[in-house]
Amino acid sequence: MQNKITQLFGIEYPIIQAGMVWASGWRLASAVSNAGGLGLLGAGSMYPKVLEEHIIKCKKATDKPFGVNVPMLYPDIEKLMEIIVDQEVKIVFTSAGNPKTWTKFLQEKGITVVHVVSSVKFALKAQDAGVEAIVAEGFEAGGHNGRDETTTMVLIPSVKEKIQIPLIAAGGIATGRAMLAAMVLGADGVQVGSRFVASPEASSHELFKQRVVDAQEGDTQLTLKELAPVRLLKNKFFKDVQQAYAEGASIEDLKNLLGRARAKRGMFEGDMEEGELEIGQVSGLIHNITPAAEIVKELMTEFNQAKAEIQHY
């Protein structure tokens, strides 16, 4: 399957595995790349030295293209970028910040740059900054989200209407049917996050993976909008946040309640009650823990089946 995205990255299928915190290490990224997609390392939860180790291990585990997702708010971002350049990583996805800051620097080193956005306004800014492609992520997605709460169904055609560069859809995509729908709406490829959390290769805690599989429709909700909007599974911590709102909590109160390292505590260390459990709405459609290569295969099989079915209409 060749299109703008497969040609841009040199991959077989237009499927990108999201670079998620506490989930996207070298095992997951290399498995997805070996299966024909594009695996991404999630640098947001890695110290610079840890990222370097994951890049080295990923290179040993695959000879296919892979990349790194870098949140622009990362405190030691200069060190991350230095490692990425030194290790000759060829693809970088940036998010949560101004794409102008690093795009030119990376491109001068021969690196393909993609930026993640949640609105048409930010998509246009990213295009103006010179990125090679855009990920437009609807607010169905897990983890941190845009403030506009635009759904993938609306966001993808809205962004497509305004930009000229390749477009990758994200948010609520865990099946081949959803992949086809996103591409009918105007996307050239898809970024899949939550589905890959429920894989043996994801570095997330097994209890978190099982919680994702057990989730039903409606078990996630967007919260903490005053700090940074984030979609969470409803556990004790989530209920504590809701209670704080009910009691008129200030922004400072919410910061104190959130504390530090709560996402690590939940998703990586396995505290299902006090931890922050970031996952997308589509967790309600994820019913098993499946190897990453099989997920890629299932996505493409269902995509092709759905494509054949709609030709009858």
UniProtKB/TrEMBL annotation:
* Organism phylogeny: Bacteria, Pseudomonadati, Bacteroidota, Flavobacteriia, Flavobacteriales
List, alphabetically, the InterPro entries matched. Answer: Aldolase_TIM, NMO
> Which keywords are on file for this protein?
Flavoprotein, FMN, Monooxygenase, Oxidoreductase
Biological source species: Flagellimonas halotolerans
Database matches in Gene3D superfamilies = Aldolase class I
A molecular function annotated in GO for this UniProt entry is: monooxygenase activity
Please give the name of this protein: Nitronate monooxygenase
Pfam families given for it? NMO (PF03060)
